[in-house]
Amino acid sequence: MAKNDVRNSIKLTSVDDLFTTEESRADSQREKVLDIPLSEISDFPNHPFKVKADEAMLEMADSVKQYGVLVPGLVRPKPDGGYEMVAGHRRKKASELAGKEIMPCIVRELDNDQATIIMVDSNLQRESILPSEKAFAYKMKLEAMNRQGQRTDLTSRQVVRKLESADIIGKDVGESGRQIQRYIRLTNILPFILEMVDEKQIAFNPAVELSYLTEKEQQNLYDTMQSEDCTPSLSQAQRMKKLSQDGRLNMDVIFSILTEEKPNQKEKLSVRRERIDRFFPKSFTEKQKEDLIVQLLESWYKKRQREQER
Q1: pTM for the complete prediction?
Q2: 49 by DSSP, 3-state: which?
């Protein structure tokens, strides 16, 4: 090897490195909070959590206007310049409403799957989360975990199966893996029906059953719900799912199911207590009152039957 090549292959410690303490070198590697212009921060792709200018957001904006953003957001640098928000979408919106131009953020290098998992976990800490938000967030995290094939304390294998990943997600949020999968089923529902689930017009359990209907069947269902001003019960949704699987669910069948009388829709007979209490001894229990009323009605019915037979 030539002398020049030997000389070039030798890497000498720079003067700056010689006089830099281990503490300062560690500090240079430590993440720092930077004030980043809001115009340089884009939202996370397909962000599943809704950021609304509701009352809570307006309160947050007032706080930001008065005190600033107290907890920095988390962003990752984009290849073409600028940053992508990972955690802090609501703080960014509040900053915009407060008239701020910058926001304190931690900049971290993250791959897509790492960023997705952090984005989902940071938002699941909120108190109120819509079913649709959980559905798409759980789906995104599940797919990211399966792509990573990460090791966990639940398995020694390099690649975890989908249900096992769902169990891991559920453990973090206090749900069963099965329930996580049921939430993910909601991502198969048409957006305008899923909105009805968010607005509690359709309960969660019937919605899971409806997720097995085809898009055309769901469209027919939605049209019928709108025209008849009704929504399916769990048993009705289960029947529609079974008929769909058998290839026998059409508009007429959906209409007949939705318009049938439900047990809880039957008119109930009620009598005001003050109208009947005066006829009973004060010592009578509710059961004794009921038994006496039925006994008197039976006597009246038998008497009426005898009169009709004459």
Answers
A1: 0.70
A2: coil
Per-position DSSP letters for 218-272, written without gaps between them? HHHHHHHHHHHT----HHHHHHHHHHHHTT---HHHHHHHHTSPPGGGSPPP---
pLDDT, tens only, 36-72: 999 999 999 999 999 988 898 999 999 999 999 999 9
Per-residue pLDDT, 202: 97
Domain encompassing residue 144? 135-265
C-alpha pair distances (Å), 181 with each of 93, 134, 185 = 31, 11, 6
Other CB atoms within a 10 A radius of the CB of residue 74 amount to 20
Task: Kindly write down the DSSP assignment for every residue of 56-109, as one continuous string.
Answer: HHHHHHHHHHHH--SS-EEEEE-TTSSEEEEE-HHHHHHHHHTT-SEEEEEE--
My answer on whether 46 and 106 are in the same domain is yes
Query: What is the chain's length?
Result: 310
**CATH number of the domain bearing residue 83:** 3.90.1530.30
Tell me, rounded to whole angstroms, the distance of Cα 39 from its chain centroid: 29
